[in-house]
Write a structure and sequence with these properties.
six-stranded mixed sheet
């Protein structure tokens, strides 16, 4: 008999489009399928409602949170299905005229348990001429978030955040036994770093990591890596999707496994304060002789 504390988590992998209504409908179909298969907690990727890299076009298609059709639909869906529904993120207008990349965790009654604005924005220039400037589109958040679920505490983050381990360490110290990084990773960065980053965040914190992803070729021209993943606290991959398009993966989550991993390697307890070097400038790099 399954313990009352063990729950089934599902990742909904999507290929969201530039059409908000179409993207919401596609997500709802898969969320319903996951719930019908017994999922208690369902997570969708970053940018569930729209994948649109052009700021002007994006701003024309999205709404304020209180007017947003995705927020209303997903809130009602969580209540109807009686699940915890974690929407990896939505693009939303803010009252000051900016755009937020905002995650929502809806409770079984449809009420918002937590909302989180992505802190770290993806401003990079990659090999081959691929370049991204999320700061030109989105306004960053400034607050870490941990949500209380019926079984455990959940650390909430989004995509590029996964490269900043201090965020997850703080969430682990706040009691999070599951960490999350729903994403729209580029294919180039995903092929290089996706798996090792997910497993590293799990291992170093003794926590599950659950990360739903966007996958495949999108209408705005970008290509995302996919490979939605669920990782156990000891680093084992419990479930993984492919990289071509929509898919559902699921795994049982036992909070006791997080406690066991933290007992085996008590790094959270073993942390010690340390001083930094007094020099403000790093030493000059030497060329190889």
């Amino acid at each position: 008999m399954k313990s009352a504390m063990i729950f089934k988590a599902a990742c909904i992998q999507l290929q969201s489009s530039t059409d908000v209504g179409e993207s919401i409908d596609a997500a709802e179909r898969l969320i319903r399928d996951a719930a019908a298969a017994g999922a208690d907690y369902v997570q969708t990727p970053e940018m569930t409602n729209i994948v649109e890299r052009r700021r002007t076009a994006l701003a024309e298609k999205i709404a304020l949170e209180e007017d947003d059709p995705a927020v209303r639909r997903f809130s009602a869906l969580a209540a109807e299905l009686g699940i915890i529904l974690h929407i990896g993120s939505l693009a939303l207008k803010t009252p000051d005229g900016k755009i937020a990349n905002r995650a929502f965790v809806f409770g079984r009654d449809g009420h918002v348990l937590a909302r989180y604005d992505k802190i770290h924005l993806f401003d990079v220039d990659l090999p081959g001429g691929e370049s991204w400037r999320e700061s030109a589109i989105y306004s960053p958040g400034d607050r870490a978030v941990v949500a209380d679920l019926p079984w455990l505490r959940l650390g909430v983050s989004i995509c590029y955040d996964v490269r900043f381990p201090q965020l997850y360490r703080a969430q682990a110290h706040c009691g999070a036994a599951v960490l999350t990084a729903p994403a729209a990773f580029t294919r180039q960065t995903g092929e290089a770093h996706w798996h090792v980053l997910q497993r590293a965040r799990a291992i170093e914190n003794g926590a599950f990591v659950i990360s739903a992803a966007q996958a495949g070729q999108h209408a705005d021209g970008r290509e995302t890596y996919g490979h939605s993943i669920i990782v156990a606290p000891w680093g084992e991959v419990l479930a993984e999707a492919g990289g071509d398009g929509p898919e559902i993966i699921a795994a049982d989550i036992d909070p006791a496994q997080s406690a066991q991993a933290r007992q085996r390697i008590p790094s959270l307890k073993n942390e010690r304060p340390f001083a930094l070097p007094e020099t403000a400038e790093p030493p000059a790099m030497r060329s190889a002789s």
